[in-house]
Design brief:
- The protein has 3 domains: 54 residues, RNA-binding S4 domain (Structural Genomics Hypothetical 15.5 Kd Protein In mrcA-pckA Intergenic Region, Chain A), CATH 3.10.290; 73 residues, Alpha-Beta Plaits (2-Layer Sandwich), CATH 3.30.70.580; 77 residues, 2-Layer Sandwich (Alpha-Beta Plaits).
- Helix content is 22%, strand content 28%.
- The chain contains 7 helices and 15 strands.
- Strand 3 and strand 4 form a beta hairpin.
- The structure holds uracil.
Protein backbone atom coordinates (compact mmCIF):
# COMPACT_ATOMS: atom_id res chain seq x y z
CA UNK A 1 0.00 0.00 0.00
CA UNK A 2 1.19 3.54 -0.69
CA UNK A 3 2.36 5.49 2.36
CA UNK A 4 -0.18 8.31 1.80
CA UNK A 5 -3.03 5.79 1.54
CA UNK A 6 -1.90 3.89 4.62
CA UNK A 7 -1.81 7.10 6.68
CA UNK A 8 -5.27 8.08 5.47
CA UNK A 9 -6.62 4.62 6.37
CA UNK A 10 -5.27 5.04 9.92
CA UNK A 11 -7.14 8.32 10.51
CA UNK A 12 -4.49 10.94 9.78
CA UNK A 13 -6.81 13.05 7.62
CA UNK A 14 -7.48 13.53 3.92
CA UNK A 15 -5.12 12.17 1.26
CA UNK A 16 -3.92 15.75 0.70
CA UNK A 17 -3.24 16.29 4.39
CA UNK A 18 -1.35 12.98 4.59
CA UNK A 19 0.75 13.95 1.54
CA UNK A 20 1.64 17.19 3.31
CA UNK A 21 2.62 15.37 6.52
CA UNK A 22 4.93 13.12 4.50
CA UNK A 23 6.47 16.02 2.58
CA UNK A 24 7.03 17.85 5.89
CA UNK A 25 9.19 14.91 7.04
CA UNK A 26 6.78 13.95 9.84
CA UNK A 27 6.70 10.23 9.03
CA UNK A 28 9.44 7.73 9.81
CA UNK A 29 9.58 3.96 9.53
CA UNK A 30 12.24 2.09 11.49
CA UNK A 31 13.90 5.43 12.23
CA UNK A 32 14.10 6.50 8.59
CA UNK A 33 12.16 9.58 7.48
CA UNK A 34 10.18 8.86 4.33
CA UNK A 35 9.26 11.91 2.29
CA UNK A 36 7.80 10.24 -0.80
CA UNK A 37 3.98 9.91 -0.46
CA UNK A 38 4.01 7.12 -3.08
CA UNK A 39 6.49 5.00 -1.12
CA UNK A 40 5.23 1.36 -1.18
CA UNK A 41 4.77 -0.38 2.15
CA UNK A 42 4.51 -3.93 3.39
CA UNK A 43 1.71 -3.67 5.98
CA UNK A 44 2.65 -6.82 7.92
CA UNK A 45 3.68 -5.84 11.49
CA UNK A 46 4.16 -2.26 10.29
CA UNK A 47 4.89 0.42 12.89
CA UNK A 48 5.56 4.04 12.02
CA UNK A 49 6.03 7.37 13.77
CA UNK A 50 4.25 10.66 13.18
CA UNK A 51 6.26 13.55 14.60
CA UNK A 52 8.00 11.00 16.82
CA UNK A 53 4.83 9.37 18.17
CA UNK A 54 4.69 5.64 17.49
CA UNK A 55 1.69 3.88 15.87
CA UNK A 56 0.99 0.27 14.86
CA UNK A 57 -0.78 -0.22 11.54
CA UNK A 58 -4.23 -1.72 12.22
CA UNK A 59 -6.51 -2.77 9.40
CA UNK A 60 -9.47 -2.40 11.80
CA UNK A 61 -9.66 -1.28 15.40
CA UNK A 62 -11.39 -3.15 18.23
CA UNK A 63 -11.52 -1.34 21.54
CA UNK A 64 -12.77 -2.24 25.02
CA UNK A 65 -13.71 0.71 27.22
CA UNK A 66 -14.61 0.47 30.89
CA UNK A 67 -17.31 3.11 30.58
CA UNK A 68 -17.85 5.37 33.56
CA UNK A 69 -21.29 6.64 34.55
CA UNK A 70 -22.21 10.03 33.13
CA UNK A 71 -21.18 9.27 29.53
CA UNK A 72 -23.62 8.83 26.63
CA UNK A 73 -22.99 6.47 23.73
CA UNK A 74 -23.98 9.10 21.16
CA UNK A 75 -21.82 11.45 19.12
CA UNK A 76 -23.95 14.49 19.97
CA UNK A 77 -24.39 14.04 23.71
CA UNK A 78 -26.68 16.70 25.08
CA UNK A 79 -26.75 16.48 28.87
CA UNK A 80 -23.64 14.45 29.62
CA UNK A 81 -20.21 13.71 28.20
CA UNK A 82 -19.95 11.53 25.11
CA UNK A 83 -17.89 8.31 25.26
CA UNK A 84 -16.28 9.59 22.05
CA UNK A 85 -14.72 12.43 24.11
CA UNK A 86 -12.39 9.72 25.46
CA UNK A 87 -10.77 9.11 22.04
CA UNK A 88 -8.41 11.25 19.98
CA UNK A 89 -9.08 12.65 16.50
CA UNK A 90 -6.97 9.98 14.80
CA UNK A 91 -9.28 7.24 16.12
CA UNK A 92 -12.41 9.31 15.53
CA UNK A 93 -11.40 9.93 11.89
CA UNK A 94 -11.59 6.17 11.40
CA UNK A 95 -15.33 6.25 12.07
CA UNK A 96 -15.33 4.61 15.47
CA UNK A 97 -18.78 3.37 16.56
CA UNK A 98 -20.19 1.85 19.73
CA UNK A 99 -21.07 -1.84 19.53
CA UNK A 100 -24.53 -1.56 21.08
CA UNK A 101 -25.23 1.01 23.75
CA UNK A 102 -25.07 1.44 27.48
CA UNK A 103 -27.26 4.00 29.24
CA UNK A 104 -25.66 7.17 30.50
CA UNK A 105 -25.86 5.90 34.10
CA UNK A 106 -24.61 2.36 33.30
CA UNK A 107 -20.91 1.59 33.68
CA UNK A 108 -18.76 -1.27 32.43
CA UNK A 109 -17.66 -3.03 29.29
CA UNK A 110 -18.39 -1.18 26.07
CA UNK A 111 -16.84 -2.20 22.75
CA UNK A 112 -16.07 0.24 19.95
CA UNK A 113 -14.93 -0.52 16.42
CA UNK A 114 -14.66 0.69 12.84
CA UNK A 115 -15.42 -2.82 11.56
CA UNK A 116 -19.04 -2.90 10.38
CA UNK A 117 -19.10 -6.70 10.14
CA UNK A 118 -17.95 -7.11 13.74
CA UNK A 119 -20.54 -4.58 14.88
CA UNK A 120 -23.25 -6.47 13.02
CA UNK A 121 -22.08 -9.86 14.36
CA UNK A 122 -22.36 -8.65 17.94
CA UNK A 123 -25.55 -6.61 17.74
CA UNK A 124 -27.76 -8.54 15.33
CA UNK A 125 -30.75 -9.81 17.35
CA UNK A 126 -30.42 -13.30 15.85
CA UNK A 127 -26.86 -13.70 17.12
CA UNK A 128 -27.92 -13.76 20.80
CA UNK A 129 -24.55 -12.68 22.16
CA UNK A 130 -24.56 -13.06 25.95
CA UNK A 131 -24.11 -9.99 28.12
CA UNK A 132 -23.53 -10.26 31.85
CA UNK A 133 -24.80 -7.46 34.10
CA UNK A 134 -24.39 -6.78 37.78
CA UNK A 135 -26.91 -4.52 39.49
CA UNK A 136 -27.96 -2.99 42.76
CA UNK A 137 -31.68 -3.00 43.34
CA UNK A 138 -33.97 -0.64 45.24
CA UNK A 139 -35.62 -3.48 47.16
CA UNK A 140 -34.31 -6.84 48.40
CA UNK A 141 -34.51 -9.41 45.61
CA UNK A 142 -37.11 -12.05 46.42
CA UNK A 143 -36.97 -15.69 45.34
CA UNK A 144 -40.16 -15.20 43.34
CA UNK A 145 -38.55 -12.38 41.38
CA UNK A 146 -35.58 -14.57 40.49
CA UNK A 147 -37.97 -17.28 39.33
CA UNK A 148 -39.88 -14.81 37.16
CA UNK A 149 -36.65 -13.50 35.61
CA UNK A 150 -35.60 -17.07 34.85
CA UNK A 151 -38.94 -17.90 33.27
CA UNK A 152 -38.95 -14.69 31.28
CA UNK A 153 -41.02 -11.53 31.34
CA UNK A 154 -42.89 -9.55 28.72
CA UNK A 155 -41.77 -6.02 27.94
CA UNK A 156 -44.12 -3.41 26.57
CA UNK A 157 -43.86 -2.88 22.78
CA UNK A 158 -41.33 -5.72 22.43
CA UNK A 159 -42.12 -9.07 20.83
CA UNK A 160 -41.33 -12.25 22.75
CA UNK A 161 -40.19 -13.15 26.21
CA UNK A 162 -37.09 -11.78 27.94
CA UNK A 163 -35.40 -14.19 30.30
CA UNK A 164 -32.24 -14.04 32.38
CA UNK A 165 -29.84 -16.95 32.79
CA UNK A 166 -27.01 -17.69 35.23
CA UNK A 167 -28.69 -15.61 37.94
CA UNK A 168 -26.56 -15.07 41.04
CA UNK A 169 -27.87 -13.32 44.15
CA UNK A 170 -24.74 -11.56 45.39
CA UNK A 171 -26.36 -9.77 48.34
CA UNK A 172 -29.87 -8.89 49.48
CA UNK A 173 -29.97 -5.99 46.99
CA UNK A 174 -27.36 -7.15 44.51
CA UNK A 175 -27.89 -9.39 41.54
CA UNK A 176 -25.94 -10.65 38.55
CA UNK A 177 -27.43 -12.24 35.46
CA UNK A 178 -26.93 -12.85 31.76
CA UNK A 179 -29.21 -11.70 28.96
CA UNK A 180 -29.14 -12.86 25.37
CA UNK A 181 -30.93 -10.03 23.60
CA UNK A 182 -30.32 -6.30 23.72
CA UNK A 183 -33.45 -4.19 23.57
CA UNK A 184 -33.72 -0.65 24.88
CA UNK A 185 -33.23 -0.43 28.68
CA UNK A 186 -33.65 -4.21 28.80
CA UNK A 187 -32.23 -4.93 32.26
CA UNK A 188 -33.99 -2.00 33.94
CA UNK A 189 -37.28 -2.96 32.29
CA UNK A 190 -36.89 -6.62 33.29
CA UNK A 191 -36.38 -5.64 36.92
CA UNK A 192 -39.37 -3.28 36.75
CA UNK A 193 -41.45 -6.09 35.24
CA UNK A 194 -40.89 -8.24 38.35
CA UNK A 195 -41.66 -5.37 40.72
CA UNK A 196 -38.16 -4.21 41.63
CA UNK A 197 -35.95 -1.37 40.39
CA UNK A 198 -32.35 -1.09 39.21
CA UNK A 199 -30.46 1.54 41.20
CA UNK A 200 -27.02 0.92 39.69
CA UNK A 201 -26.04 -1.10 36.64
CA UNK A 202 -22.67 -2.40 35.45
CA UNK A 203 -21.87 -4.60 32.44
CA UNK A 204 -19.33 -7.25 33.36
CA UNK A 205 -19.01 -9.31 30.20
CA UNK A 206 -19.83 -9.58 26.49
CA UNK A 207 -19.66 -13.11 25.02
CA UNK A 208 -16.71 -14.56 26.92
CA UNK A 209 -14.86 -11.23 27.19
CA UNK A 210 -14.55 -9.32 30.49
CA UNK A 211 -12.84 -6.04 31.34
CA UNK A 212 -11.98 -6.69 34.97
CA UNK A 213 -8.41 -5.40 34.68
CA UNK A 214 -9.39 -2.11 33.00
CA UNK A 215 -9.74 0.91 35.26
CA UNK A 216 -12.94 2.91 34.89
CA UNK A 217 -12.58 5.47 32.08
CA UNK A 218 -9.68 3.56 30.54
CA UNK A 219 -9.65 1.71 27.23
CA UNK A 220 -7.46 -0.79 25.42
CA UNK A 221 -7.12 -2.33 21.96
CA UNK A 222 -8.39 -5.91 21.81
CA UNK A 223 -6.08 -8.65 20.57
CA UNK A 224 -7.45 -10.95 17.81
CA UNK A 225 -8.04 -13.58 20.53
CA UNK A 226 -10.09 -11.12 22.59
CA UNK A 227 -12.13 -10.17 19.50
CA UNK A 228 -13.02 -13.86 19.15
CA UNK A 229 -13.90 -14.09 22.87
CA UNK A 230 -16.39 -11.24 22.44
CA UNK A 231 -18.06 -13.12 19.57
CA UNK A 232 -18.25 -16.38 21.49
CA UNK A 233 -21.86 -17.39 21.50
CA UNK A 234 -22.92 -18.58 24.91
CA UNK A 235 -26.07 -20.60 24.45
CA UNK A 236 -29.00 -20.36 26.82
N1 LIG B 1 -30.00 -2.66 30.10
C1 LIG B 1 -30.31 -1.44 30.60
O1 LIG B 1 -31.40 -1.25 31.14
N2 LIG B 1 -29.41 -0.46 30.49
C2 LIG B 1 -28.19 -0.61 29.92
O2 LIG B 1 -27.40 0.32 29.87
C3 LIG B 1 -27.88 -1.88 29.43
C4 LIG B 1 -28.80 -2.89 29.53
Amino acid sequence: MLLEKMLQSQGFGSRKHCQQLIKNGAIAIQGEVISNPKHKLDLKDLTFTVYGESFDYREKVYIALNKPQGYECSHQATHHFSVFDLFDDVLMNRGLQCVGRLDQDTSGLLLLTDDGQFLQALTHPKKHVAKVYRMQTADPVRAGQIQQLEQGVELRNEAGIFAATDIILLAENELQFTIHQGVYHQVKRMLAAVGNKVERLHRQQIGALTCTDLEEGHWTYLSPEQVELAKTRMTV
